[in-house]
Amino acid sequence: MKDLIFIYGPPASGKSTVGKLIAEGLGLPFTDLDTKIEEKTQQSIPQIFSAGGEAGFRSIEKRILQEFISEGNGVCALGGGALTNPDCLELVCAAGPVICLMASYDSLSSRLANMKRGERPLLSLQLETQLRHLLASRTNHYASFSQIIDTDGQSPPQVAWEAQTLLGRFHLCQGGQISDIRTLKGMDDIGKAMHSYHDAGSQIAIVTDDHVGPLYAVRIVKSLRTEGFEAGVIQIPSGEDHKTLSTVAYLWDEFIRLKLERKSLVIALGGGVVSDVTGFAAATFLRGIPWAVVPTTLLAVVDASIGGKTGIDLNQGKNLVGSFHFPRQVLVSSDALASLPIEEFRNGLAEVVKHGVIGDPALFEICKQGEGYIQANFLRVILRAIAVKTAIVQIDPFEANRRAQLNFGHTIGHGLEVLSNFTLRHGEAVSIGMVVETALAERIGLARPGLKDEIAKVLDAIGLPTSLPSGLAIDSLIGAMQMDKKRSGGVVHFSLPVEIGEVKAGIEIDHLPDKLAL
Q1: H/E element holding 483?
Q2: Is pLDDT of 121 > 60?
Q3: How far is residue 303's CA from residue 355's CA, in Å, rounded to a whole number?
Q4: DSSP run (H or E) holding 13
Q5: Which residues contact 17 (CB under 8 A, 6 or more apart)?
Q6: Which of the four pLDDT bands, split at 50, 70 and 90, describes residue 445?
Q7: 3-state class (DSSP) for residue 348
Q8: Domains of the chain (ranges plus CATH)?
Q9: Given CA atoms 370, 376, 378, 383 in this order, what sign does their dihedral have?
Q10: Which residues of 15-161 form beta strands (DSSP E)?
Q11: Which of 75, 160, 189, 435 could form a disulfide with 21 if both were Cys (CB 3.0 to 4.6 A apart)?
Q12: Cβ–Cβ < 8 Å for 438, 455
């Protein structure tokens, strides 16, 4: 499947430098269009301008851009005026997304100050005057692009990561396992997206539940078969109480019925329960077969589908049996999220707020604006939340250290889920867990005073609970927490916030019963 991304902006905005980093981060080839023009014509850009002027250069640029779009693939850095040609603009916008990098006049002139004479034909005489004129003449043009990044004050890696966040594209490679995370317009695009990692003719099993399956399974099967894949559907009952070994055994039987092989693919279509149990079944069938995730809840999009954690529950606690098995692809279809019930929307927002607290103060500020603002900026919010978890997983895929930060709110939260017999939603339990654990952090002098109230105010405005259920026995909660998988050496460890954007993992707390008596 053709996969094109274009980087654009004024001269010296960092297109080539950032473009290379984006390509490297996504595992794609990189092309600099100006370099390609020089290779094709066997002339330098100044020589082309000297022979035919700007009009002659633009004609050559258009021809070679057409060739690249027809034959090439990957990330392409465009010249600073390439898309001023309406024909080129139309070609590029039809071929792939455009990220426009911008910078102030002072930043651009500083970067251009050391350029060789004649290196940039449109800025070869009086740099200051020509640069101001060029920016003035193209201001509206550059502002017309929907995805713009201000590069001032940011390093190239920071700009590249922001670009990936805007694109909704991430590429994890850990221990030989690859996860490609991307957003799609709809379920009908899943078949085409599969060509990135799988050959037509491959056998695919779609695992879903009795709630999601009737909504999307037929469309996905049609999409896959249109692209030449063989696809079958396996349906399991919905709900956390079916995240069990007996469900996994049923899936193994169905994998055998569908004649899955080591190179076959399993797609988990649904929420966090479906992805957890499907991933574990795939990890253990034939000692591990490839799988992919098509999450259909906000909670699954920003949390369960990313990072390769799979598992099932036991009577004593959540996720006590499982493995790390990274999905080949995580395909986020925006149409699956557009009609979520408000309860499911809020359930996922708990994890979004958590990601803001542990790693993205700007995301937390967005959440402060309230539920309506979040809904109006939905895609921007979920992409930032995905970026937080992806960045942490990239550094620590197997939870050796930093990944444990993601457990903020979950030590208390998982205990509450177990005590409620899972009638308390995961997001609701984590919401309470974040507030209680922040209160613990304040009591031991780790968090600044007032942080608990700041976090609770955001959660409360979203419609999530922020206090322990009335009548809850603290001893029972501590007992449930003692069975949590985050226990080490018989001691439960917490991930506690210091400030918005900073969390410390592996915290032990003495006299826990006293400190939980909030």
Answers
A1: none
A2: no
A3: 9
A4: none
A5: 156
A6: very high
A7: helix
A8: 4-155 (3.40.50.300), 168-340 (3.40.50.1970), 396-516 (1.20.1090.10)
A9: negative
A10: 30-32, 74-77, 98-102, 148-150
A11: 160
A12: yes
Cβ neighbors of 516 (< 8 A, separation 6 or more) are 436, 440, 474, 477, 478
- Going through 121-175 in order, the beta strands assigned E by DSSP cover 148-150, 169-174
Range of weakest confidence among 62-71, 376-385, 467-476:
467-476
Pairwise CA distance, residues 103 & 12, whole Å: 9
User: Measuring CA to CA, how many Å separate 406 from each of 142, 193, 325, 353, 380?
Assistant: 38, 29, 18, 12, 20
Task: DSSP for 417-433, please give it.
Answer: HHHTTT-S-HHHHHHHH
Residue 334 is encoded by which pair of tokens?
A: 């925006």
Rounded distance, CA 455 to CA 12, Å?
Answer: 41
What residue has token string 């109006």?
A: 376
Contact call for residues 20 and 52 (beta carbons, < 8 A): no
Amino acid 156: pLDDT? 96
Q: Render the burial of 141-156: b for 16+ CB within 10 Å, e for the rest.
A: ebeebeebbebeebeb
Are 188 and 225 within 8 A, CB to CB? no
pLDDT, one tens digit per residue, over 320-341 is 899 999 999 999 988 788 778 8
| Residue-level pLDDT at 511 | 66
